[in-house]
Specification:
By secondary structure, the protein is α+β, with helices and mostly antiparallel strands. It has one domain: Cytidine Deaminase, domain 2 (3-Layer(aba) Sandwich). It is 26% helix and 23% strand. The protein contains three helices and six strands, in the order E-H-E-E-H-E-H-E-E. The protein has helices spanning 20-34, 73-84, 113-126; strands at 9-12, 43-51, 56-60, 90-99, 131-135, 141-144. Helix 2 (73-84) runs parallel beside helix 3 (113-126). It binds tetrahydrodeoxyuridine. Residues 38, 41, 43, 45, 61, 63, 70, 72-74, 97, 109, 111-112, 115 line the site of tetrahydrodeoxyuridine (THU).
């Protein structure tokens, strides 16, 4: 039996098409990106998280001379948020990434597989979908309405 999975997403050609809060998140993610510690890849990623109380927190990728010991921007940010505000729901996550010297052709940077899995843990825990935006420095933005949409057949606690 053949089955299909469909995901819907929104595409913004330019950040001017975003709402005010989305624009704020984009700006915060860009500010965080500028402070990324990525001396090995020269690939800079910033992330901004909007909580249900309206607060915004941000983070970036942190690399290490022992390469696998570094961490992506999404996990750096969300782990910090979860550690400090374990009972506050996350509404939106905005990611912006690209090479340090970005080119206008650089496409929106989607979260890696490990980040998708990690973010889904919190989406499941809070029992409410998180809007996820990923973008490039050239202002193109993709929005999905749940992190789960990016990881069909995700693994979670229900299997344990
Ligand atoms: N990176 C992120 O921070 N987020 C992603 O979604 C993709 C990759 C980081 C990890 C590493 O520091 C650099 O980008 C190159 O892979």
């Amino acid at each position: 039996m053949k089955k299909d999975i469909q995901i819907s997403y929104e595409y913004f050609k330019n950040s001017s098409e975003l709402s005010d809060i989305e624009k704020q998140l984009f700006e915060r993610a860009k500010e965080a990106r500028a402070k990324a510690y990525a001396p090995y890849s020269q690939f800079f990623v910033g992330c901004a998280v909007l909580l249900e109380n309206g607060e915004i927190y941000s983070g970036n990728n942190q690399e290490n001379a022992a390469f696998p010991s570094g961490l992506c921007a999404e996990r750096t940010t969300l782990f910090w948020v979860a550690a400090n505000f374990p009972d506050v729901k996350v509404k939106k996550i905005f990611v912006v990434g690209g090479p340090k010297e970005f080119h206008e052709k650089n496409p929106p940077i989607p979260p890696c597989g490990a980040c998708r899995q990690s973010l889904i843990e919190y989406e499941t825990k809070q029992n409410e979908n998180i809007d996820l935006y990923f973008s490039s420095m050239n202002e193109e933005v993709v929005k999905v309405h749940a992190v789960k949409d990016l990881l069909p057949f995700y693994f979670d606690a229900t299997f344990l």
